[in-house]
Amino acid sequence: MASLGWPFVMVFSFIVFQGLFHFLSARISMLCCKGFRTLTDLQKTEWNSRIVSTFHALVVGILCLYLLWVDDAVNADPVWGDPSLVKLNVGLTAGYLISDLLLILWYWKAIGDKYFVIHHLTALCAYYYVLILSGTQLLQSPPCPILSRKIDASSLLPTLFTQHM
Fold first, then answer.
1. pTM of the full predicted structure?
2. How far is CA 83 from CA 8, 28, 64, 69, 153, in A?
3. Matching InterPro entries, A to Z (predicted)?
4. Residue among 7, 5, 13, 8 nearest 99 (CA)
């Protein structure tokens, strides 16, 4: 799967999560939960959204634990190591977030919330940074003139900040 690349994983996860929402979650819920049939359409939409969200959390959580405990490339050098599996995991999550954002906008009456939209958009911006820009320069920003100067106010304040880059 690592050879497929994160764009493929993102598109694939989008399709899988849409399929899970529209087709599988209702069928599985009818078989497993007797009360599912008594829910209103709005409640079923929210139920299906929560099923997809739970499935996503399980898959991504297991992948994160694998990366934390098993993946040698990440554990050998967490900062500069090979992030290919991390990028696939982020691609999987980005596909889910795009899918869920589309569902939130489409089914606004049932699951719409402006804070969900803000959450999804900010997470997608962060994932864009990790996937496209590789996130390697996260801590290196253009130096702020105030912080890059040595502050000495009549010897009351010794050098507070020095910047070594």
1. 0.75
2. 16, 35, 12, 15, 45
3. TLC-dom, TLCD
4. 13
